[in-house]
Amino acid sequence: MILSLLLLGLIVAVALWLVLEPLRRRVSADPDAPERERLHGERDRLYAELAALEDESRRPDLERRAALTLRALDGLPPAPGRAGGRRLAVVGVALAALLTGVGAVTFVPRWQLASLSSAEAADVQAVLSLPALRARAERTQANADYLAWGRAAFDSEQYDQAVSAYGEALKLDPRQPVALRRLGILLLTRGERSGQTVSDEDATQAALLIRTAAQLAPQEAESQLLLGFTLARFGQDAEALSALERYRTLEPTGRDADDLITALRARLQKSDPGQRVYAANCASCHGPAGGGGLGPSLRVSTLSRTALASVIRNGKGTMPAYPQLKEAELKALLDLLEGWQRAGR
Question: Residues 277, 333: contact at Cβ < 8 Å?
């Protein structure tokens, strides 16, 4: 980032020199020189601030002040000087514009993206692509173009645009899982972004969209992730945990739901010591209710209590050993597993 700012500063400095050097060459005194120089300095400072701006909320004020400064400069009478100086100024302006344009579309973006992480660079590129994607979608009104616009808007957190894009896509085809679940989660969390409470009607509609997406694409990890978050929001903890465990099965490296999974397990297992031990040590592989996941189902197991205890203590195959379990914890876990076995017969 520092290198990109230095490069941008160099481009601005060269551009300003090309513009100001011809104007500096004058033959007679300029009575407006002090005011002209003050306005030039103010303009240059504002341009430099705009070029290095990071807080976009300040841009409108800086642009307004820059416009007022330029207007004041235009209101001054022309500075006395040689005609050749004015011609050189025109050439300087053209060269400065060319240099700045080349830098803006080549060197600066490349250095900026190179200084970011891959995720941050993807977000920047998504933001930069939004105007073109939106214009294309509104021009063609094609489903694929609406989805491309929605995806870029969603990934760059331009959620109002994402709602518009996915809404238009669903008008063309109402059975699109990505558009359904993302529009649903945006409706459900709209209150958090705006500081307002989501109405019961919007919440119900959002939940329906997300459930429909999960039914249409049960093997897509994002479907299960958003379904889990939605069910948890409605207090359906067991169903939410099941969906999030399914998400972890489909996306083993996904960490987006870890905190919620931990919280759900804690809420569900408060009263049962066996469930607490199972949730903490076994559920990530064997599923939240023992029905299987990365590991086999424990509800259809035919192992005796002694065999189960041996496998838990010593491990077997790809299953790790748990010698650290206390006797009371092991007993509570074995009681739970035996109960599942009896229920499955």
Answer: yes
- Residue 204 confidence (pLDDT): 85
User: In the 8-state DSSP scheme, what is residue 303?
Assistant: -
145, 137 in Cβ contact below 8 A? yes
Domains of the chain: 2-75+82-114 (no CATH), 272-345 (1.10.760.10)
Residue 84 confidence class, pLDDT cut points 50, 70, 90:
very low
Task: Give the chain's radius of gyration (CA, Å).
Answer: 32
Report the alpha-carbon distance of residue 135 to residue 243 in Å, rounded: 37
Secondary structure class of 316 (helix, strand, coil): strand
Rounded to whole angstroms, what are the CA distances from 317 to 293, 295, 320, 341? 16, 11, 8, 21
pLDDT of residue 164: 92
How far apart are the two ends of the chain, measured CA to CA in Å? 63
Amino acid type, 207 = A
